[in-house]
């Protein structure tokens, strides 16, 4: 993951659930990075670690863009499948069959490692936390821009073409209205009266 020092908490959480360790990209150089700059920095770190399969979340809970995973795959020239609901790795550890969720069903896709898969929540049920992971603090490696050999012109606020000018909570929607009437015809007439009264029709 990439972020300030406190972002190591998400790695600790993963270790409590069974992960062997993790990497945190942290430093002033990364501050203000948008999805383009973030995916570049993460792709540089992944070049060093060279994993067979990269799992990313479908989208972040703040920006909600669903861009970082696919952008990493593009930068590393890897095949990718998004919205992964289920997968199976063959005995040769090279071929993967992926079940990809669609709005009206799913599709089965064959893909070879190394590859990028972005996961939806249905993919797995997280393990219960095991506090033995707390003894693995040494397995969290913190890397700065120099450690992963990034081009400083491609990270940070200045390298980010996307700018957030304002963030806000949308106003709650007005409650729905029940149209009175004993029959469907009467309800339809009452609805028309209301719509005409509001100059909608």
Account of the 3D structure:
With 201 residues, the chain is of the alpha/beta class. It is 23% helix and 22% strand. The longest helix has 15 residues, at 35-49. Helix 2 (35-49) packs across helix 3. The strands form two sheets. Strands 2-6-3-4-5 form a five-stranded mixed beta sheet, with helices on one face. A hairpin with a 5-residue loop joins strand 3 and strand 4 (95-102). The mean pLDDT is 88. It has helices at residues 8-16, 35-49, 68-76, 184-197; strands at 22-25, 53-57, 80-89, 95-102, 105-112, 115-119, 140-143. The relative contact order is 0.19. It is extended, with a radius of gyration of 24 Å.
Which SSEs are present, and which pair or pack?
Blueprint: H1 8-16, E1 22-25, H2 35-49, E2 53-57, H3 68-76, E3 80-89, E4 95-102, E5 105-112, E6 115-119, E7 140-143, H4 184-197
Parallel strand pairs: 1-7, 2-6, 3-6
Antiparallel strand pairs: 3-4, 4-5
Helix pairs in contact: 2-3
**Major pleated sheet:** 5 strands, mixed
- Give helix % range: 10-25%
How are the strands of the biggest sheet laid out side by side? 2-6-3-4-5
Envelope shape? extended
Radius of gyration: 24 Å
The secondary structure category is: alpha/beta
Strand content: 15-25%
Query: Uncertain runs with pLDDT below 50, 5 residues or more?
Result: none
Number of strands: 7
C-alpha end-to-end distance = 53 Å
SSE order, one letter for each helix or strand: HEHEHEEEEEH
Mean pLDDT: 88
Q: Helical region count?
A: 4
């Amino acid at each position: 993951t990439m972020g300030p020092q406190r972002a190591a908490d998400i790695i600790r959480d993963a270790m409590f659930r069974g992960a062997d360790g993790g990497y945190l990209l942290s430093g002033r150089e990364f501050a203000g990075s948008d999805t383009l700059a973030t995916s570049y920095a993460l792709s540089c770190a992944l070049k060093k670690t060279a994993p067979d399969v990269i799992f990313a979340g479908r989208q972040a809970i703040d920006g909600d863009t669903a861009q970082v995973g696919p952008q990493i795959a593009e930068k590393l020239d890897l095949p990718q499948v998004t919205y992964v609901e289920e997968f199976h790795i063959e005995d040769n550890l090279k071929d993967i069959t992926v079940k990809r969720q669609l709005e009206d069903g799913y599709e089965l896709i064959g893909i070879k490692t190394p590859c990028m898969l972005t996961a939806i929540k249905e993919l797995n049920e997280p393990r219960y936390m095991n506090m033995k992971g707390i003894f693995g603090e040494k397995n969290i490696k913190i890397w700065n821009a120099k450690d992963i050999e990034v081009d400083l012109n491609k990270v940070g606020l200045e390298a980010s073409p996307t700018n957030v000018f304002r963030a806000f909570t949308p106003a709650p929607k007005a409650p729905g209205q029940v149209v009175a009437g004993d029959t469907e015809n009467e309800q339809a007439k009452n609805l028309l009266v209301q719509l005409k009264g509001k100059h909608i029709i």
